[in-house]
Each structure stands twice: as C-alpha cells, then as structure tokens.
Q: What sequence folds into this?
C-alpha cells in the first residue's frame, strides 16, 4: 500500500530527531506516520455520495428533475409561502442568519445546515433524528414551524402540477397513492435524488493536502516550508480538530458535546432524538424503506443499547458537521451563535463554554488551546480553503 511503499527521508528525519533529542520531552516531527495516514484520507472525497439502497430512485435522473422542482415549490407548504429553498438557498444552500423563517413568521429552533454535500452524511439533522436523506425531508415538510404541510396538501399539489412525471416514476398517480405516509416518503425520495447531485468537492484544501503529502516524500524541510504547514499542524496537534473532523467529509459521523451555549428545551440533542428515530415508521428499517434488511437498517437495533448505556456521551451531543464549504455556510453551530470562522476558532481556543451554559457533560477533547496569533490565523485560512467547486 501507498503508506508502506513511501521512500524514507521522513523516517530518517524522524530517527535523527529522536536520536538527537533522546526522544524525550521533544515534539515529534509533523506529520507522524499515523498523521500521514489521516492526511491521506482527507483529500479523497468521491465525486458522488455513497449509494443509498433504501431509496430505489436515489440515482434516477427523472426523480432528480422532479425533486428540483419540488425543492423550490412553495405550494407544498401549508401556508403557500415556504419552500425547501427558502431556507436552503443561495451559494451556501442555507441562510445567513442564526435561524430561518418558516410558515406564519415562525423561526426555526436551530441553525439550518447546508444541503450541499448532504448525502455524504451518515446522519441528518444536528441531533441525528433522521437516518436517511429521503426521510429527513419529511420533517421540515410536516413541521408546523417550517412548511406546516401534510400528506393531503402534498398529494393535491402533486396532482395539480406534477401528476405525469410522478406517475412516470412511481407507476401510479398521486391520487392512487392512498397511503399518506407513502406520499410523504415518495416526495422525500425525490428530494434526495435532487440533493444528491448538488455537491461541491475539489477545494483548494484538497490541492494543498496533496502537495503537502508529496512534500513529505521529499524532505522535512520541504514539509515545513509548505504554506499549509502551520494550518495543518495546528488542525492535527494543538487544535485536535482531526479527532472529530476527519476523513474526506471532515466528519467522524458521530455526535459530541463540545460545550456550545444552549439552555433551550431541546438542548439535550442526540439523547432525546434517538428513541423517536428508532421508533419512526420512516427509518431505514421501516416499511417505506426500499431496503429494509440492508446494512443501514440492521444497525439500528444496536443503537437501542447505546441509548441505555451512553447517556453521558449523548446528552447535549450534536453531529460533527462537515467542514467542506464552511466559508459559505455561516453562522455556525446548531444555535447559529458564532458568526465568523474567527469566532469558531476563538470558541475552541477558550475550550468551549463553561458547564453552566449547556446541557450535559463536555467531551474531554475540548480544552483551552492557547493558540498563538499565527496558529489562529492559519486555522482560519485552512477553513477558508475548504470551499469546493460546484460539480
Ligand atoms: C423554515 C426553514 C426550513 C425549511 C423550509 C426547510 N429546512 Fe431543511 N433545515 C432547516 C433547519 C433549521 C435544519 C436543522 C434542524 C435540526 O437539526 O434540528 C434543517 C436541516 C436540513 C437538512 C439536514 C442537513 C444535515 O446535514 O443534517 C437537510 C438535508 C434539509 N434540511 C433539507 C430540507 C428539505 C429537503 C426541505 C424541504 C422539504 C427543507 N430542508 C426545508 C430549516 C429548513
Ligand atoms: C470532540 C469533537 C470535535 C473537535 C475536537 C472539534 N470539533 Fe468542530 N465541531 C464538532 C461538533 C460536534 C460541532 C457541532 C457542535 C454544535 O453545534 O453543538 C462542531 C462544529 C464546528 C464548526 C461549525 C460548523 C457548522 O456548520 O456550523 C466548525 C467550523 C468547526 N467545528 C471547526 C473545528 C475546528 C477548527 C476544530 C479544531 C480547533 C474543531 N472543530 C474541533 C466536533 C468537534
């Protein structure tokens, strides 16, 4: 494999450093072998999100086309004025305020995440209460504060404006789809087919990481002279960002309590979201899934055990979001409280908020960082370089 075949100036440098310092009390040169492996995973985002067998229309181009029309259709909402695109529009496919406005002037409870690259995620919503992108769409559709809709409104709109293309895809008309839940699930599947295609990959960051890895094979001097050196080193070492924001999506697909200020009734995050997701008829193992015995579905029951055993980890925990396209998607965190990337870095620098400001127990990885001005700047610069190009 690539790692094993790598020529060894790096290894020699490593040996030399440990020899000179007695490997004691000194900082290991960056990147170590383990860190190099993690670096290699960072720049390999596939052009398309992984296959989702729970939606048999996920990669159907007719479904994507109808999904696009529905994503922008305000008449799917109960109030007639709110579409998915109202809160997931513009370059960043989100809003630039902490909360977004749904039907009748209601504000959302949390910051809308971007729908860019959404189907690379394992979980959806900040608290993970949806396990597939298609079932996720049912939540804003039926949420009274967002689109305030229901199966009857949706079916009537489909009949009015999209009956032919709907029938072409599903083999029956919206009116013949008598189960209201099936109508909602079908619309979700169309939304997913569209959303899966809206990705931004290939960021300057990817180029920087590739060049940086190539420098490792040349010399440690070349590594340290690389413009990305300080940013990456801070991301890996002092900042510990790589612990959670890892892999090609820059997310571990897990949930953590990092101490973001939140004392609202829903502040318990993943801990209160999981049981409803497991009981939900729309989940990957439920009757509306197109692959009820697939891996996604069979993993769900195991999570019931997590719920019993891991309260401390789950309470106040939120999904590690992707950092791709992060410069386009502010403000930040599930509360939208942090306005700029500088604010985010300062939040981590101080080790999150004090315990009284949020629910649950902060994970031990989040501690005061004591970043220098240069380290702070280099991290911000690194985050800014993660904006990809539209596919
Ligand atoms: C009124 C604003 C609003 C509308 C309308 C809206 N959303 Fe959202 N969206 C949000 C908010 C807020 C969240 C985060 C909610 C949470 O985590 O509790 C979200 C989350 C999402 C996510 C999860 C992304 C992730 O990474 O977890 C996706 C995907 C999404 N919305 C797609 C849609 C689709 C599709 C529609 C239309 C059916 C839609 N949204 C309508 C505000 C909105
Ligand atoms: C222990 C895991 C963990 C570590 C370590 C970590 N993060 Fe995060 N990050 C998260 C989670 C979880 C969230 C969402 C938290 C929330 O909203 O409550 C987040 C949110 C963010 C956001 C906001 C994303 C958005 O869409 O709003 C940015 C930017 C970010 N992190 C960057 C960093 C940087 C830079 C570092 C290193 C200094 C870092 N993170 C370290 C887990 C982590």
A:
């Amino acid at each position: 494999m690539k790692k094993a075949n790598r020529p060894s100036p790096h290894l020699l440098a490593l040996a030399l450093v440990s020899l000179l310092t007695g490997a004691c009390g000194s900082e290991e040169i960056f990147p170590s072998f383990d860190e190099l492996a993690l670096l290699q995973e960072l720049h390999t985002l596939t052009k398309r999100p992984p296959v989702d067998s729970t939606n048999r229309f996920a990669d159907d181009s007719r479904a994507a086309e109808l999904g696009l029309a529905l994503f922008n259709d305000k008449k799917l909402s109960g109030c007639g004025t709110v579409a998915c695109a109202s809160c997931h529009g513009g370059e960043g496919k989100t809003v630039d305020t902490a909360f977004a406005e749904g039907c009748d002037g209601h504000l959302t409870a949390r910051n809308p995440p971007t729908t860019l690259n959404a189907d690379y995620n394992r979980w959806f919503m900040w608290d993970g209460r949806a396990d597939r992108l298609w079932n996720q769409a049912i939540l804003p559709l039926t949420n009274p504060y967002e689109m305030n809709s229901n199966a009857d409104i949706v079916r009537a709109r489909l009949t009015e404006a999209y009956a032919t293309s709907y029938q072409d895809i599903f083999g029956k008309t919206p009116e013949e789809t008598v189960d209201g839940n099936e109508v909602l699930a079908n619309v979700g599947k169309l939304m997913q087919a569209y959303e899966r295609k809206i990705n931004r990959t290939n960021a300057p960051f990817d180029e920087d990481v590739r060049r940086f890895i190539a420098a490792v094979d040349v010399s440690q001097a070349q590594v340290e002279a690389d413009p990305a050196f300080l940013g990456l080193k801070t991301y890996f070492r002092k900042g510990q960002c790589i612990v959670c924001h890892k892999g090609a999506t820059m997310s571990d697909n897990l949930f953590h309590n990092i101490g973001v200020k939140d004392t609202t009734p829903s502040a318990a995050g993943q801990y209160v979201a999981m049981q409803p997701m497991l009981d939900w008829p729309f989940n990957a193992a439920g009757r509306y899934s197109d692959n009820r015995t697939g891996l996604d579905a069979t993993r769900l029951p195991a999570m019931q055990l997590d719920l019993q055993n891991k309260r401390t980890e789950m309470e106040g925990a939120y999904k590690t979001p992707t950092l791709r396209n992060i410069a386009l998607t502010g403000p930040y965190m599930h509360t939208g409280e942090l306005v700029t990337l500088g604010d985010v870095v300062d939040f981590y620098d101080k080790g999150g908020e004090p315990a009284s400001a949020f629910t649950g127990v902060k994970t031990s990885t989040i501690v005061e960082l004591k970043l220098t001005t240069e380290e702070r700047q280099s991290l911000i610069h690194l985050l800014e370089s993660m904006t990809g190009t539209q596919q």
Notes: Residues 1-47+199-269+315-391 form a domain with the Cytochrome Bc1 Complex; Chain D, domain 2 fold (CATH 1.10.760.10). Confidence is low (pLDDT under 50) at residues 1-7, 14-25. The chain is about 45% helix and 0% strand.
